[in-house]
Amino acid sequence: MPTLLDALRERTQVDCDTMDYELAKELGPFVDCTSNQAIAYFELSRPATGDSLLHHDALIKEAIKSARDQLQQLQGPITFEEFVVEIMMVKLQLLFIPYVTGYVHVQTNTKYSYCTKSTIENAKRIVAIFEALAPELGTKRLCIKIPSTWEGLQACMALEFEGIRTLATTMFCMEQAVLAERVGCTYIAPYVNELKVHFDKG
């Protein structure tokens, strides 16, 4: 029997806003799959069923090993811990590839939101990790999410010029949307309200 999700798919494109790939497997296929550090944290912290280990215990250990061995040369100036987080986010998104028809999205570190140079370097490192872990995909299935500050949108322009797809996120006003269009972002992610409403009570 058709579901409401099926009805939505007949009229629009449906994306996935979770990092639980089993959910995407069950309800997919979706078009794109988004992510950010908060979604990744909650997914990576999820306990395993009937076990003391985390659900993604093997993926976490693989990411640490990759950071020390196979991908070590990509770390650059960031801390080892930051590097491992980036690898884990890419690994999580690669689990979604069979269940989406478009892009998987990985977000840059928000601490670089007001530095164009650091945002570009961060985005290119994510791309390099993605290419190293899934060379058969290249960058054709990856979109980089970047906070839509002035500096972030300048980074989007530079990355789009090089063929790296971008999404301008944390967008709160029309001015940001207009600038995102002018710099050539592939996607935008307008926010209805501030992020704190999801975490602060009242």
Automatic annotation (TrEMBL):
Read off the Pfam families from this record: TAL_FSA
Q: Which InterPro entries match?
A: Aldolase_TIM, TAL/FSA
Source organism superkingdom: Eukaryota
- Which UniProt keyword terms apply here? Schiff base
Asked whether the keyword Phosphoprotein is assigned, the reply is: no
Q: Which GO terms describe its molecular function?
A: transaldolase activity
One GO biological process this protein is involved in is: carbohydrate metabolic process
- What name has this protein been given in UniProt? Transaldolase
- What is the protein's species of origin? Stachybotrys elegans
